[in-house]
Design goal:
- The protein is an alpha+beta fold and 169 residues long.
- 16% of the residues lie in helices and 30% in strands.
- It has two helices and ten strands; from the N terminus they run αββαββββββββ.
- It has helices at residues 2-18, 67-76, and strands spanning 35-43, 52-58, 80-82, 94-100, 104-106, 108-114, 124-129, 142-144, 149-150, 155-158.
- The strands form three sheets. Strands 1, 4, 9 and 10 form a four-stranded mixed sheet that branches. The chain has a four-stranded antiparallel sheet with strand order 3-2-6-7, covered by helices on one side.
- The radius of gyration is 25 Å and the shape is elongated.
- It starts with a helix and ends in an 11-residue tail after the last strand.
């Protein structure tokens, strides 16, 4: 009889603990996202030998020695963020994106493209820049505040008229 009482007591206790929540613990923190969103438009004669397309946002903008310097910044600092998914590199007219970024000033938002082996910096070039000036392609900086998305950050990739490369040579 005592063993039945213990079993019933254990069942009741296990049911009580199963339905208890965390008591007075604070609610989980709400995930706050911020960043940019917009559309990338593709124009011109589409190259057939593309092996990668990447959207990136850089907190720094200056003339770099070469693409290798940019890749080093990507891997060793947080000054350049890569858009997580790969952009398609099949022929399309446009694609919408939503790029989650840390709050900060981003001075250079661009699309880079590789032709050939993607680990070779010499195979990468900039093919589109967020700019309101399509003659000089001056990059337009974007300030991202905490918890806000900046929209209409549209970028045009024009294969017949690419922007200048941000490199010395």
């Amino acid at each position: 009889m005592k063993s039945i009482n213990y079993i019933v007591l254990l069942l009741i206790l296990s049911l009580i603990f199963m339905f208890c929540d965390h008591g007075l613990a604070p609610p989980p923190k709400e995930k706050i996202e911020q960043g940019i969103e917009g559309k990338i438009f593709y124009k011109g004669n589409y190259p057939t030998n593309i092996t990668a397309h990447k959207l990136f946002a850089s907190k720094v903008y200056r003339i770099f020695r070469d693409m290798n310097e940019i890749m080093n910044l990507i891997f060793t600092t947080d000054s350049i963020a890569l858009y997580p998914p790969d952009l398609p590199f099949t022929k399309i007219d446009s694609i919408d994106y939503r790029f989650v970024l840390q709050p900060d000033m981003y001075r250079y938002i661009a699309v880079a493209q590789a032709r050939g082996e993607i680990t070779d910096p010499a195979n990468w070039k900039i093919v589109g820049v967020y700019s309101l000036d399509t003659l000089n392609w001056d990059p337009r900086p974007i300030l991202i505040g905490s918890g806000s998305f900046v929209d209409s950050i549209d970028i045009t990739v024009n294969y017949n008229n690419p922007p200048p490369q941000p490199f010395e040579n």
